[in-house]
Design brief:
The structure is a homodimer. By secondary structure, chain A is an alpha/beta fold. Chain A is built from eleven helices and twelve strands.
């Protein structure tokens, strides 16, 4: 059972896990150093704990202790209770969802483990924006993608904003991180996956018409530049989402990566 | 030809159009009162001017006067040139895209005018988030939706963040605003549009299987609550995007409105 501790100072050292949530660089080093991540809001906290992440502590406004009572009963960690001004002083912005948890990361499974029983997977190459990563996880989970593979440099799905935008879907879908950007697509091919590279190039095969076979992996590139030429070349087929000819001539000629991912995942899962 | 004016004070009254861009409430009243809106970044400024919006003024770092030289030659408005610190002092945040334009709104066309030659339209009911509105415009334009109809309370596509997220697609697709939330869907039906109401309800017809006929309108609801029961009842058919049964049982049971809109628009345009 959790122990409740009232805190009244935003500089209380016991709240160090929650310091300055808007400072991306500070948070990256803090989270990496301690192997922690943050979950925000009742629903996401529940999902993170249900996924087996050990709880380091919780921090919340007193109004949240009752709705989370069953969770707090089940964990053995301090629960820091603070008023809204103290919360904002710690985090650097108003905490609308009123409850935060600091949790321990778990070792990611190896690539082979997440591929073993999967038929439809996404492979994300070097996405930079955490909100995009969270949005793609949410969409992939809802539509039924079996697993997600991240390139070595792809943004972290457990970074606070990714967790939040995913609505906790980062805990619902198995994922692994490649160790070798150059060679690891070979592991997917060896496992029998057809590799489909999504590109804005309208000369590619429309996603709806792509031959997928029993196992298929959809490769999605980074926000600015899309897939690298190496991954485009490694793919079995280049696929696209057909754009309106009128839009192309008006210069409105691309979808953002989350919209493209949503449409492509839907096509990937329809068959 | 534009006249160049160097400004060195963030409180210069000539820059009032650009004041405190992050203050949503201030901006809403300022923009409504003066019938103006802002475009950010070279590409979006070009699109806004090409769409016929008269220019009130421009504000930019000096490095942007050369890339925009042809535009500045063609407009008859003051061009305020400021250093980055002054720019940030005026707007309240670093202006990464380095160039802003204040433009005049144009009267929106009546509903009948945007429907006249359209076969595939979106109807947005009471969306609140400007980024979502911008994202949906971008996606709709790229995929070839002919027109967008807004409910009376739907968020403004010319609000700064909507314009920015749309990448200027708000200037590429005709749109109108309903005057009567209760009755104006009747005007679409009278014009021969099949009304399809998008809902997360998995008992609805999968979007891919919906009967559309020659003219079809896809109704999208607000972020939190979806479509109102009145609009659901007015529709000819309720349509859904099939979710994974496993995801449903894991509680990851919905798409955000932009992902849902992307998938539904793609299905709307495929036929």
């Amino acid at each position: 059972m959790a122990s409740f501790l009232t805190v009244t100072s935003a500089t209380d050292p016991r709240l160090a896990d929650y310091t300055r949530l808007r400072d991306v660089n500070l948070r990256r080093s803090l989270e990496a150093e301690h192997g922690l991540f943050l979950a925000e809001g009742e629903k996401v906290i529940r999902r993170a704990i249900a996924a087996g992440h050990p709880v380091r502590s919780l921090l919340m406004a007193s109004r949240w202790t009752a709705p989370l009572a069953d969770v707090l009963d089940s964990v053995d960690a301090p629960v820091y209770v603070a008023d809204d001004a103290t919360l904002e002083g710690v985090t650097g912005f108003p905490v609308h969802r009123g409850a935060l948890a600091s949790l321990e990361r778990l070792p990611l499974p190896p690539l082979a483990a997440v591929l073993r029983d999967a038929r439809r997977v996404l492979v994300l190459e070097d996405l930079v924006d955490h909100a995009n990563v969270g949005s793609i996880f949410r969409c992939a989970a809802a539509l039924g993608v079996d697993a997600i593979v991240l390139s070595p440099r792809c943004a972290d799905p457990l970074y606070r904003r990714a967790v939040k935008v995913s609505m906790g879907a980062v805990f619902a879908i198995p994922y692994a991180r490649m160790t070798n950007w150059h060679d690891d697509l070979g592991e997917l091919r060896a496992a029998g996956f057809t590799l489909l590279a999504l590109t804005p190039d309208q000369a590619a095969t429309p996603m709806d018409k792509a031959a997928m076979g029993d196992r298929a992996a959809l490769l999605l590139g980074s926000e600015g530049d899309g897939l690298t030429s190496h991954w485009l070349d490694e793919a079995d087929e280049r696929v696209c989402i057909p754009m309106s000819p009128g839009a192309m001539s008006a210069g409105v000629d691309s979808l953002n990566v989350t919209a493209a991912a949503a449409i492509a995942c839907h096509a990937l899962l329809r068959r």
